[in-house]
Design brief:
By secondary structure, the protein is α+β, with helices and mostly antiparallel strands. The protein has one domain. Helix content is 21%, strand content 29%. The chain has 2 helices and 6 strands; from the N terminus they run βαβββββα. The strands form 2 sheets. A 4-stranded mixed β-sheet has the order 1-2-3-4. The protein has a two-stranded antiparallel sheet with strand order 5-6. β1, α1 and β2 form a beta-alpha-beta unit. It starts with a strand and ends with a helix. 13% of the residues are buried.
C-alpha cells in the first residue's frame, strides 16, 4: 500500500476517476514501497500562474510517473485540435491530457 500524500483525498475532489486511482494506490499491496502525491501543485508553469498534476508516483525499481487521470468520454477534434472533456458537456480544453502531463513533468 503506497504512502499517500496528502494522507486523505480532499473532499472537494469531484473526479470519481481520481478517487478510484487514489484508493487503488492506497490499498493495493503491490504498491507497498511506493510514494504517491495527489494533486501536486506546480509553482512554475509556462502559461499559467499555477499548474497541477493529478498524481506523481515514486515507485522504486520502476521510476517516477506523472499521471493525468481522466473520466468519461475523451475525443480529439482534428479541425480545432481542442480536446472535449465529458462528452455530455462538450467542454473544450486547449491542452490535452498528454500535453498537460508533459508540461507538469518538465516542471517537477
Amino acid at each position: 500500500m503506497a504512502r499517500m500524500l496528502p494522507s486523505r483525498i480532499a473532499p472537494e475532489v469531484t473526479s470519481s476517476a481520481e478517487r478510484r486511482v487514489y484508493e487503488w494506490f492506497e490499498n493495493d499491496p503491490a504498491t507497498d514501497d511506493w510514494i504517491a502525491f495527489h494533486s501536486l501543485g506546480l509553482s512554475r508553469h509556462e502559461k499559467l500562474l499555477y499548474g497541477e498534476v493529478d498524481f506523481v508516483v515514486l515507485a522504486p525499481c520502476y521510476g517516477v510517473f506523472c499521471l493525468e487521470v481522466k473520466d468519461g468520454g475523451i475525443a480529439r477534434w482534428m479541425d480545432s485540435g481542442n480536446l472535449p472533456i465529458g462528452m455530455a458537456r462538450r467542454t473544450e480544453k486547449p491542452e490535452g491530457p498528454l500535453t498537460k502531463r508533459e508540461t507538469a513533468c518538465s516542471r517537477l
